[in-house]
Specification:
The protein has a domain of 47 residues. The chain has 80 residues and is mainly alpha-helical.
């Protein structure tokens, strides 16, 4: 049995269409790659680049220490 690179579609009409294509020997139309909106990408990147620094600047040293402790505990739980 050939390996599948992705899961089959759950939509019955798509499955039926692909089955007919295989049975008749025709190949299904190639899927077009999704193009990202450059403006949305830039906006998301802008927020992501300053997010951590802005959050850290708002926290008190005690809050930062507590977050660090929780992170260390989670890493140690994961390791064992």
């Amino acid at each position: 049995m050939p390996k599948r690179s992705s899961k089959p579609s759950t939509d019955p009409s798509v499955s039926a269409y692909e089955a007919v294509q295989r049975l008749t020997g025709e190949k299904p139309a190639p899927k077009r790659p999704k193009k990202k909106n450059p403006a949305a990408v830039a906006l998301g990147r802008l927020g992501g680049m300053k997010g951590g620094k802005a959050r850290a600047a708002k926290l008190t040293p005690e809050q930062r220490a507590e977050i660090a402790r929780e992170g260390a505990r989670a890493r140690w739980r994961k390791a064992s």
